Amino acid sequence: MDKTEKQKILIVHNYYQIPGGEDIVVANEKRMLEKHGHRVILYSRNNSELKEMSKLQKLLLPITTVFNPRTYREIKKIVQEQGVDIVHVHNTLNLISPSVYYAALKCKVPVVQTIHNFRMLCPGATFYRDGHICEDCVQHGLMCAVKHSCYRGSKLQTLACVISTKFHRLTGIYGKINYICLTEFNKKKLLQLNSSGKKKVIDSDRVFIKPNFTFDTALNIRRRV
Fold first, then answer.
1. Apex CA 67: angle with CA 108 and CA 69, to 5°?
2. pTM higher than 0.85, yes or no?
3. What CATH number does the domain containing 17 carry?
4. Looking at residues 47-53, what average pLDDT do you find?
């Protein structure tokens, strides 16, 4: 594809119940791409939906966290009907799930995943526990997180995260997508996935560095004055 050609980009983001920096990044990138003439479609879910779920939906949540059939169907439909050129994923936890990767690749559309935290190696996402740096899950396996209830203080919710990560490592899907890391350190930590077993989890040639950005509102104010 010609680099000057305008593209149709599907941004995928699962909002947390408490707004955070990832949400700002999604808004900024959507604005920037549209400013340069690209067409951007936003597919999103919000974890506030969890409060409205039926008992059955909540019971199935550990399964849909691993693979959500609704996401798979909806992403395929959007990609096919809108002629999407690339799918850019930010967050998939809990409602979207990694099923977005499979849907996009089934449609032969490339996927980019921005790495906002360390969740692919650490279910708690921060490499920090009980007041100190912790990389037990990298060194001794993801079940360490379950022992310490690292995700939301819940062993059950942590186990769902662990099962999801282990499952998608085994399918090899992580090696088929591209990654944006925010820093060189971020990239180095992500590639530690390749030292966690005999088989490479991620293709290092598919990992790129692009820092976050913000718009210079002060400059815009000066221009208007």
1. 75
2. yes
3. 3.40.50.2000
4. 94
